[in-house]
Amino acid sequence: GTRAQGDPAPRPNSRPRQRATRAKALLAPSRADAASSLAMSCRLSDLITEVRACKTAEAERARITDECAQIRNALREEAGGKRRGRVGATPFRERNMLKLMFAHMMGHSTHWAQMECVKMSASPSFHEKRVGYLGLMLLLDESASVLTLVTHQLSRDLQDESPFVNSLALATLANIASADMARDLHRHVERHLASGPPLTRKKAALTCIRLFKSAPELIDDFIPRVVGLLTDRTHATIMTGTTLMWHMARMKPAVIPRFSKAVPHLAKLLRKLVVSTNVPNYTIGRVCDPFLQSRLLSLLRVLGRDNSVASEQMNDVLAQVATHTDASRVAGNAILYDAVQCILEIESEEGLRILAINILGRFLLNKENNIRYVALNTLCHIVDKDLPAVARHRTTIVACLRDADSSIRRRALDLVYALTDSTNILSMAGEMVNYAVIAEKDERAAVCARVASAARRFAPSMRWEADTLLVLIAVRGEAARRDVVRRLIYLVTAAPGDDTQASLAHKCAEMLSENASSPDCQAPLLLIAAWCIGEFAAELTSDPPPLPEGPADSVIPVGPRGRARTPKELVDVLGSLLTHHKAGTEIKGVTLTALSKLLAKIPPAQLPADVVETARSHLATFQTSLNQELQARSVEFLALSSEDLADVRADILAPIPALTADAVRRLKWESSAAAEAAGGDEDVIAGLSDDVDDDEGRAGGTGLAAGMRAMEATGATADDQQANRAATKTAEAVDDEGSLLDLFGGGPSASPPADADEDLGADGGVADLFGPGPAAGGAATAAAAASSGAGAPASGAPAMGGGAAGLNLDALFAAGPGAIAAPATHAPAPAT
């Protein structure tokens, strides 16, 4: 048995070694792939850190694009490895999908990974299934075509024995369910809703919300199951059940009567929570489960609306919530707010509503801005229904006008305006005017609109309303609408008695002298003061009448009384307005008109020669102005101030008569049309004639009311009246433009162009308040042409009331018999 010397050695068996070498060769590529994947893969937290460290958007985009490319290569290698039968192709599959979700949340395209999510959701591993479903919820929506591949897998997972797998499927269905998926899978969801652990029951309830939104016809089939959730012992399940019932009632109100049968049980649950104290895991801020209480109150509010029986069943528990909830913590205030909302929306008892409003009044005294805001917001919605109860907290509401938070001030302003009536207008108007002083720039227009509207509706007298608007114009006139100026002019012209008009004129002149030098002087105050000086120049040179006794509780001052002024002082004041830093083209035009009227209304014996020359020098200021309107006024009024036209000057510059009912109604119609086109505040723009009868009663006259009743007695339809107004407006506009132009040789021909009325319609404003008067004769035209000399404008240039480029208040401030309906005793100008 021994080997002889020289024999060759036996060869070993090399077959096992060859097998091992072949297996190593097969596994070498997959190990290399794993090593490369390990080298290129980073953790999700590291990727988030690197992205946040990027300085620019380009760097961030480049980093995420590079990571997505690496993940795409890894997925491609995994697919190739499976085709070749390799094992362990990608050890970082979950990590890569989580990084893709992060890239999707950053706004980058990851649609190419949708199929990978579908594959992972079908994985037997719970970790991969969880990541796959999470990717489906983030990357897909109900319109994605890939969902057809997911429906079968969701059906299998909903029937799985593990409640955790069921929860994954329910959560996914609650996020991406389409109408078809809802109809296919609702039976499985109904089974989990009826029985099972609390985890799946509450998830099934939240899933039903999505199913009902996608397929509302399923609601009726689930009603018995949904009501059964209220009998569960866990708070989470009861809260999801009440949430589901609230959504069902909002989506299909027809189910509310069926849910109303559960009101006693809901009230019992709420009462148990209110009286419970120190419940472990549920007590927050000494309130037992405030989240569940809030949901129960929201559901009771829906069920008790327009249902007296259900409201009666919940009155006691709502009173218990309102009186036993601790209001010293945020959680307690939240419950009280929900209880107040519920009380105010259902058909509750009167005492309970007063209790709810008193709770809101206590909220107004809270230091937290959010609590005060929600209280003001709620009071604004209920002030029309419970005005007496809300009015008890008027002092606290007015104090909110001085709050540091602008949103609270705005809500308080809305509420103060809503609370204003004839019994408290004297104090409320003063508070709103005081607020206008401190209001921010974007709030001032709303404040002025509300003050003007409240004064127009509830003013005790015309004098008080005029004083209020004058103070408002002096404080924030530049933020007020032009309707406030129009209303004040109407009140001055329609004031009862000459003493009232003279007193208001003296007050305007005194306020102008006090505020003209101030940098905050308001331009509308300059406009009103210049108009008053021109219209009441003779009264301003005499002592002012005694101030009337204003209302005892009024915050608006009646004074200042003013003093008698010399013609020289009046001319100097008007001359200073021509160079005032706030004086625009309109104010300058009104001032030129006032200078001309001043020379006509003050008796010549009281006008020294130097004062006349000073006035004429001011009138000649704009003879060479580039503004054709100012140039025309300057030239025409300078010619009118000459001695050659002394006999017709008084007729041309006659006082403005009081407004008529037809003029007020026409202005309201035009202002309403303009407000509708501009989207303005209807409360103020509703016109100056809403209270025409009241104005007549306060003035002691009957002309306006009688005129309005006569108009209504004609029996004309609304369309006929509107057509008549439009025709009257067009005729008066053409007449206004032609009258003074004819006087000075620059008027239009007998046949005006076809678009003359359209251009003049844009003039609008207070100019249309007054109707046309008799035209002046031709002698005035020749005399004016001779007096104006070389300074006259070219023929056809627009004059004081002409053209679309004219001023809105031209006919008011430059009114003569050719532009204004003169009184019956007025004699027409002499004709040649």
Outline the fold blueprint.
Blueprint: H1 15-40, H2 44-52, H3 57-83, H4 93-105, H5 114-121, H6 126-139, H7 147-158, H8 163-176, H9 179-194, H10 198-214, H11 219-228, H12 235-251, H13 256-259, H14 263-275, E1 283-284, E2 287-288, H15 290-304, H16 308-324, H17 330-345, H18 350-364, H19 369-382, H20 387-391, H21 394-399, H22 406-419, H23 425-438, H24 444-458, H25 462-476, H26 482-493, H27 498-515, H28 523-535, H29 537-540, H30 567-578, H31 585-601, H32 609-619, H33 628-640, H34 646-652, H35 661-678, H36 682-685, H37 692-699, H38 703-713, H39 718-743, H40 756-761, H41 778-788, H42 810-813
Antiparallel strand pairs: 1-2
Low-pLDDT sequence parts: 23-39, 678-832
Biggest pleated-sheet summary: 2 strands, antiparallel
Question: Mean of residue pLDDT?
Answer: 77
Helix content: 55-70%
How many beta-strand runs?
2
Sheet with the most strands: spatial strand order: 1-2
Shape: elongated
SSE class? mainly alpha
Percent of residues in beta strands? under 5%
How far is the first residue's CA from the last residue's CA? 167 Å
- Provide a count of the helices: 42
Radius of gyration: 42 Å
Q: How would you portray this structure in words?
A:
The chain has 832 residues and is mostly helical. The chain is built from 42 helices and two strands. The protein has a two-stranded antiparallel sheet with strand order 1-2. The protein starts with 14 loop residues before the first helix and ends in a 19-residue tail after the last helix.
